[in-house]
Design a protein that fits this description.
Elements (H helix, E strand, L loop, with lengths): L10 H13 L12 H5 L7 H5 L31 H12 L16 H11 L8 H4 L9 H36 L3 H28 L8 H12 L3 H26 L3 H29 L4 H21 L3 H6 L4 H9 L7 H5 L4 H7 L5 H13 L22 H4 L3
Helix pairs in contact: 4-8, 4-11, 5-7, 7-8, 7-9, 7-10, 8-11, 9-10, 9-12, 10-11, 10-12, 12-17
């Protein structure tokens, strides 16, 4: 939240915060942190067989439903600007809109195989697999043809997960409009609904027109999205989507933006990143003051949820669905992935560069005796804690759309 020193009547904000705190589940008062097995369903965070065997599947109905227990909330306080930074973000969002149909060069021809080969040429170590890692597996005998197919399938998979994640964000942000108690937050969240619809549209169109196939939602990402959407508490929607999922997505988009040699995708990603910076800042601004007022048991529950989200998102990076579709022998998959040190995987680690400083800003790293700090230290991502948080991101409060600003 923002500083309210310029306002004399804060009754509504205080009452709304106290109301949320009163309705939290407090049965865990005085309880210890849950075990890793209780939180994620397995005792070993790095249990590769459990991670790799959980594979997303197509839903024959073409739909997936999640029971949502939240209550929609009206507010009768329509005073705009009570929460000054959220109001500022809302005003910036009004001028930052872009048209996915007319502002991107969709006429750009894309030769997917040529793009994959160019990406390999500029980043030959992007897979992170050495000859030693592949030794004794079927991949050690792969020709350029098999590696090319793997690159193509990996690109299809990555863009598919981006698309599915953006639909998750679309649903969550619509839920925030319904459930958050402050009019300034409802106003801003409504602009994000439009942003997320645009993001789903552009990734879907790119997959359909420029690439060569879709993938189902990754199973680990699906578990996380179900948990976020199904939780009745609006602040958990913020934490799960705005801080965790959107934070990782922003870093992932930035990584691919740097890596790709394909001009349409590069511009598409940069425009999406400009929107995402506002989205993550929205989560930090909305939760910062609230979390300073929650009880110790309530904070512990949010630390556990942040840890679960971090593990689920790391697990989904294993590309299980690609291995499965290509028919790579199970033992080979376990062998290759098992030879990787997750703490030495620069790509996976960098994806947490937005999440960790934001959780520090919210006070979640060091609460409960530094429990979450220890978990992130074990995951090898704590080094990012002193990077700038998302409220300092230049894109978050920039004037104008990425088109008029000519971002590159």
């Amino acid at each position: 939240m923002t500083d309210h020193t310029d306002h004399t009547d804060h009754t509504d904000h205080t009452d709304q915060t106290e109301n949320l705190m009163d309705t939290q589940a407090t049965e865990s008062e005085g309880a210890e942190m849950r075990t890793t097995e209780d939180i994620i369903g397995r005792a070993d965070v790095n249990d590769l067989e459990a991670i790799l065997s959980f594979i997303g599947q197509e839903d024959e109905s073409g739909r997936h439903k999640v029971v949502d227990q939240c209550e929609a909330e009206f507010t009768w306080d329509y005073e705009k600007g009570r929460l000054e930074k959220l109001d500022r973000l809302y005003e910036k969002a009004k001028t930052a809109q872009w048209n996915s149909r007319t502002d991107l060069p969709w006429e750009t021809p894309v030769d997917q195989e040529a793009v994959v080969m160019a990406n390999f040429a500029t980043q030959p170590d992007q897979m992170g697999w050495t000859d030693e890692m592949l030794e004794g597996t079927s991949l050690a005998k792969w020709s350029d043809k098999e590696w090319l197919r793997f690159g193509v399938e990996s690109q299809n998979w990555t863009l598919s997960q981006f698309m599915h994640g953006e639909q998750g964000a679309l649903l969550c942000t619509a839920k925030i409009v319904e459930t958050v108690p402050w009019i300034d937050a409802k106003y801003y969240a409504a602009t994000q609904v439009v942003d997320e619809a645009r993001h789903v549209e552009v990734f879907s169109r790119y997959l359909d027109e420029k690439l060569s196939g879709h993938y189902p939602l990754n199973a680990h990402l699906g578990l996380l999205l179900d948990d976020i959407i199904g939780d009745s508490r609006w602040d958990m929607t913020y934490l799960g989507m705005q801080i965790m999922v959107e934070g990782l997505a922003l870093a992932a988009f930035g990584f691919m933006h740097q890596l790709t040699t394909e001009p349409l995708l590069k511009k598409l990603l940069r425009y999406v990143m400009a929107d995402e910076a506002r989205h993550v800042a929205f989560g930090v601004l909305s939760l910062q003051e609230l979390y300073s007022e929650l009880s110790a048991p309530e904070i512990r529950e949010r630390q556990e949820f942040a840890f679960e989200a971090a593990v689920r998102m790391r697990d989904r990076l294993r590309s299980q669905e690609v291995w499965d579709r290509m028919g790579i022998p199970w033992n080979d998959v376990v062998t290759i992935v098992g030879r990787q040190d997750p703490n030495q995987d620069d790509f996976q680690i960098l994806l947490f560069s937005k999440i960790v400083p934001n959780l520090r800003k919210l006070g979640l790293l060091d609460a409960a005796g530094g429990w979450l700090r220890q978990k992130f230290t074990e995951m090898g991502v704590i080094e990012f804690e002193h990077l700038g948080d998302s409220t300092e991101d230049e894109d978050a409060f920039a004037d104008g759309s990425p088109v008029t600003r000519q971002v590159a």
